Amino acid sequence: MTTDRSTLVRAARRIVVKVGSSSLTTASGGIDPARVRRLVEVLAAARGTGAEVVLVSSGAIAAGLAPLGFSTRPRALAAQQAAASVGQGLLAHRYQEEFARHGIVTGQVLLTLDDVVRRAHYRNAHQTLAKLLELGVVPIVNENDTVATSEIRFGDNDRLAALVAHLVHADLLVLLSDVDGLYDGPPSRPGSTLLPVVRSEDDLASVTMGAAGSSGIGTGGMTTKVDAARIATGAGIPVVLTSAEQGAAALAGAEVGTLFEATGKRRPTRQLWLAHATSGLGSLTLDAGAVRAVVSRGASLLPAGITSVTGSFVAGDPVDLLDPDGGVVARGLVSFDADELPALLGRSTGDLKESLGAAYEREVVHRDDLVLLR
Ligand SMILES: Nc1ncnc2c1ncn2[C@@H]1O[C@H](COP(=O)(O)OP(=O)(O)O)[C@@H](O)[C@H]1O
Ligand SMILES: N[C@@H](CCC(=O)OP(=O)(O)O)C(=O)O
To answer: Does residue 219's CB lie within 6 angstroms of at least one atom of ligand 1?
Structure first.
């Protein structure tokens, strides 16, 4: 069945729009005020139709380069954090002034990975964003780059935007980049053609994805955008990917760029994150009975079914659950530190409660914090 783009976009009452660094800044670093102005005009027009808008904006690091005298994006994390610290303020100020011209108030929301993975933080982020929208504010979201270290980073705003779309129960995610859609190969390669619609994973089988564009400003390239589209569509949210120049047309429902049709249904955000955006910091090998319990019966993982532990992690970290042959069957948030587990393996919860106390009766990975990967 062909989706009527115009109907789909016009019906979307809550829209998350993500814009990449390369669409906001000059190649030499620094915000391009004219591009910010055009983007804000497009978003204000969408608001004018009654839609609520959440903007996920990259560009903090790029915006901080010129003021710090950096000619290119630094590789060192500390320098990136410093650039983000300088650039985020400039970016937020630019947006605030531009939206104010349309009588719209903006609110800055800087998220870290924990804000979508940890239950209490997730609730917080959800409530803040819901309240901002209720008050008619346009939330402007970015990763909190200044405090995020490499272990606890989203690393790219495409996936962050997909998780935010899920967090705010958006009807549509629009990814604006410096390329006008998904091509079957890097657009610089002669003969590459645009895919107007992606309906399922099969449509991606013949696509070759290259790295970020030649500007040296963007980070993820097409891979992170397609990953973001997978996360969002798998959670029931359609995605339009196009260029910032075509943003107005895309939000008016024109057939521009690439539409990724929704494939799945809404799932808990932590499960989306576990499945798509993180990797295990360690692994737990399960015996055959525990694999059956977790995979077929949807049970929590108890100490009795674990035969070995590797890696260095603390309670709350993601770990991979392996079958006896080493294949990954699931990923989950573990509720013990790595060094606590060896003493518990193979023992029943009753035995652990009796010898170590009631705190040791708990599951190693609770079923709500677990996602199957096959
Ligand atoms: N198959 C493809 N289709 C479209 N663009 C691609 C493809 N493979 C690689 N790219 C590149 O991805 C770039 C967009 O990624 P990136 O620079 O990270 O953008 P942004 O800053 O918007 O996040 C495009 O400029 C394009 O050159
Ligand atoms: N959070 C970073 C952006 C990271 C990122 O994903 O950048 P991009 O590929 O341009 O969307 C920043 O504001 O500089």
So the answer is: yes
ipTM of the complex: 0.95
Average pLDDT over residues 319-341: 96
Q: 50 is written with which tokens? A: 């009654």
Q: How far is the CA of 225 from the centre of ligand 1 (A)?
A: 8
DSSP string, 219-241: SSHHHHHHHHHHHHHHTT--EEE
Give the pLDDT of residue 106.
98
| pLDDT, tens digit (0-9, with 9 covering 90-100), for 70-119 | 988 888 989 999 999 999 999 999 999 999 999 999 999 999 877 876 66
Task: For residue 80, give both structure tokens.
Answer: 């990136």
Nearest 10 degrees: Cα torsion 314, 315, 318, 324: 90
Where helices occur in the chain by DSSP H, the ranges are 5-11, 33-48, 60-65, 77-100, 114-117, 119-134, 157-167, 221-234, 247-251, 269-276, 288-295, 349-356
Q: Tell the residue number behind the tokens 């609730």, with chain if given.
A: 123
DSSP string of 130-177, one letter each residue: HHHHHTT-EEEEEE-TTT--GGG----HHHHHHHHHHHTT-SEEEEEE
| Protein residues with CB under 6 Å of any ligand 2 atom | 20-22, 58-62, 84, 142-143, 145, 156-157, 218-220
The residue assigned the tokens 């970020």 is: 212
Confidence of residue 266 (pLDDT cuts 50, 70, 90): confident
pLDDT band at 221; cut points 50, 70, 90:
confident
Cα–Cα distance, 163 to 272 (Å, whole number):
8
Structural domains in the chain, CATH included, are 5-269 (3.40.1160.10), 279-372 (2.30.130.10)
